[in-house]
Amino acid sequence: MNGKKAFIIAANLVIAIFVIQTHLKPFPDMVLKGAEQKIPLQMPTGADLFSGKFQAAVDQWLKQHVGFRGFFIKCDNQVNYSLFSEFSRNNPRKVVLGKDKYLYEQPYIDYYNRINQAKPEALEAKAVSLKLLQEKLLKKNVRLLLLITSSKTSIYPEFLPDRFILRDNLGKNDEYQNFLPVLRKHGINHIDGRELLLQKKAASEPNLYPTSGSHWSLYGSYFFTTALVDRIERLLGKRVTHIGCKKVARTREPLELDSDIARLGNILFTRSLFTEYLYPETYPVGGAGSYKPSMLMVGTSFCWNIIPHLEKNGFFSRLNFYYYFNTDHSFPAGRHDPIDKARVDWKGDIFKRDIILIEINEIAFNETGFGFIEEALRELDK
Fold first, then answer.
1. Number of domains observed in the structure of the chain
2. DSSP string covering 139-202, please?
3. Pairing of β 318-323 and β 294-299
4. Does the bond joining 332 to the residue before it have cis omega, within 30 degrees of 0?
């Protein structure tokens, strides 16, 4: 067999393997992290064929389903990371490598650069709605508390790559600096997570955000949760269970949420992005005879590092977490169900809670409540 025939046979064999892997998947492929909208391949019409719409759909389908796609994407991303210290800009979450292995997502960098900020009148309107809801709930003996969670870029801006910083914009106020005075003016109950974590950073507390994660660490959120417990006790006027810390465990093996950005990078050797992680070992303080509030929490993924501290230490009798006001995660039952807004039991359930917590990250103040505030006000006005 001459070299030309051998090449043809080998090339056809490679093509056959790719075709088989694309359609039958006999070999396991590397899993890619991150949300991706899969394009289904449908039977074309005559118009689709002649307009080129079907051909474009086939091309997109092949890009998403070609055999060994995960492996080759991770190889390409690894080359970019190893040679150029960059992640693929094709990732919809836009992961950016900062100094000392600090990873950031582009929306948080845009926020730091004061890009696409909410208008002052929008923030004023949101604060007025919160104040109205707080007053109406209080008449039903329900407390409202706004939880402001911080951006990683606000706590650790010093690790941002210099080329990503728009220094001419930094003299302007960011949304947090515009919104906080409005909240204070209207007397809205709130806990300022940015201020709290900056105080802890100034006191030399490390690892308030993991290098490889977008959200605050369990260590950082522990400080916020203890402040939350103190504030709830004052608002309710009842003694509640407090949360203490026995010791802090150090490890280079992060929990899933502490490595979410690193895994979104989709490189071959994700572990090379891991550094040191701190995990507090907590315990309940004064739990015997303390009041266990019935709670509702509405918020973002930053709540996932608050809830474990509360649940582990038996703080509440019942907690429902309305994740983006789309999914209901109930504790301690452990259920999660889509929220049918037309079937929410406002009078028999929501307005009988001890306290309602609304969490929002500082990069999205204009989305506070994700429609919950407006729905609650409509129900209270009936």
1. 1
2. TTT-EEEEEEEPPHHHH-GGGS-GGG--GGGTTS--HHHHHHHHHHHHT--EEEHHHHHHHHHH
3. parallel
4. yes
Q: Is residue 373 part of a domain?
A: yes
* Structure token digits, residue 162: 């210099």
Q: Which domain holds residue 110?
A: 104-380
Q: Distance between CA 209 and CA 207 in Å, rounded?
A: 5
Tell me which amino acid residue 141 is.
Answer: N
Q: DSSP letter at 32?
A: P
If DSSP codes are grouped into helix, strand and coil, which group holds residue 31?
coil
323 to 146, 182, 377: CA distances (angstroms): 15, 25, 19
Helix, strand, or coil here: 328? strand
Distance CA 358, CA 296 (A): 8
What is the pLDDT of the chain when averaged over all its residues?
88
Least trusted range by pLDDT, from 61-75, 173-187, 200-214, 248-262: 61-75
Taking the C-alpha atoms of residue 21 and residue 218, their distance in angstroms, rounded to an integer, is 41
Q: Residues with Cβ < 8 Å from 60, sequence gap 6 or more?
A: 39
The reply to whether 205 falls in a domain is yes
- List pLDDT tens digits, range 235-291: 999 999 999 999 999 999 998 788 888 777 777 778 888 999 999 999 999 878 899
Does residue 156 lie within any of the structural domains? Answer: yes
Phi, psi torsion values for 368, nearest 5 degrees: -50, 125
Give the tens place of pLDDT for each residue, 80-111: 777 777 776 666 668 899 999 999 999 999 99
| DSSP 8-state assignment for residue 240 | B
349 Cβ contact list (under 8 Å, min separation 6): none
C-beta separation of 350 from 357 below 8 A:
no
Residue 35 lies in a domain: no
Residue 356 CA to residue 320 CA, distance in Å, equals: 10
DSSP secondary structure letter of residue 351 = G
What's the first-to-final CA gap in the chain, in angstroms?
86
